[in-house]
Amino acid sequence: MDRVPAQILIKCTNFAALKHSKQRRKDREQTPYINHPIGVAYILTEEADITDLDVIQAALLHDTVEDTNTTFEELEETFGSAVTNIVREVTDDKSLPKAERKLQQIEHAPHSSPKAKLVKLADKLYNLRDLNRCTPNGWTENRVQEYFQWSANVIKGLRGTNKKLECELDVLLKQRGVLEL
After folding, report:
1. Which of 24, 49, 93, 138 could in theory staple to 30 by disulfide, Cβ–Cβ 3.0 to 4.6 A?
2. Domains along the chain with CATH numbers
3. Which ranges constitute the DSSP H helices of the chain?
4. Does 123 qualify as catalytic in the annotation?
5. Per the residue annotation, which of 67, 74, 76, 146 is the catalytic one?
6. What residues contact 150, with CB distance under 8 A and at least 6 apart?
7. Which is the catalytic residue, given 27, 47, 52, 66?
8. Dihedral (CA of 68, 131, 111, 108) sign
9. Could you read off the pLDDT of 123-136 as tens digits, one per residue?
10. pLDDT digit string, tens, across residues 31-87
11. Region of residue 80 (phi > 0: left; psi between -120 and 50: alpha; otherwise: beta)
C-alpha cells in the first residue's frame, strides 16, 4: 500500500528524532537537537510555502549523516534516492578540518540543486535566528559575528532560490552589519 504524505513525514520525523535523541543544542537551555531539523522543515513549509515532500524530508534529515551514525545507504533504503541526494548535497564531510568544510560550503553553494539550496537557506535562517536568540555556550560575540559573515558568504551562492527566505536572511544579516541593503 502506498503511504500518504502525512505518514511519510511522521516516519521521517520519527527517524530523525531517534537519531538525534541524545543530542542537545549548544545554547544555555541545551534545547533538544531535534528542534533544529523540525524547525528547518517548518521554515520551509510555513515561511517559504514549500510543499515538495522530498525537500521537507531532506530538511528533517539534513544533519543525520553529518551528526549521527546514519549512513547515506541507510537513508536511501529508508527514504529513497531523491531525498538522500538532497541530504548528500547539504552534508559536510566531517573528515575534513572545520575551516575546509566551511570553505567548501561557500564554494559548493552556487552549484547545488534548487532543492538542496532550499534546505540550506532554511538551515541558515534557523541557525542565524538561534544565534540572535541565544549565544551558544563558549561562543564570544566575535565568533557569532564571524558565523554571520561566513553565512552571508554561503547565502550569496544560494540567492535566486526563494525570495521569502532570502528577504528574511537579509534582515538578519543587515542587523548584524554584514549586508548593506
Report:
1. 24
2. 5-176 (1.10.3210.10)
3. 5-19, 35-42, 53-61, 64-67, 72-79, 81-90, 98-108, 114-133, 141-156, 163-175
4. no
5. 67
6. 102, 106
7. 66
8. negative
9. 999 999 999 999 89
10. 999 999 999 999 999 999 999 999 999 999 999 999 999 999 999 999 999 999 999
11. left
- Which grid coordinates are listed for 130? 538561534
How many alpha carbons lie under 13 Å from residue 157 in its C-beta half-sphere? Answer: 18
Three-class secondary structure of residue 21 per DSSP: coil
What pTM does this model have? 0.96
The three grid cell numbers given for residue 181, joined into one nine-digit string: 541593503
Give yes or no: 66 in active site. yes
Amino acid at 2: D
C-alpha closest to that of 125 among 86, 75, 84, 161: 161
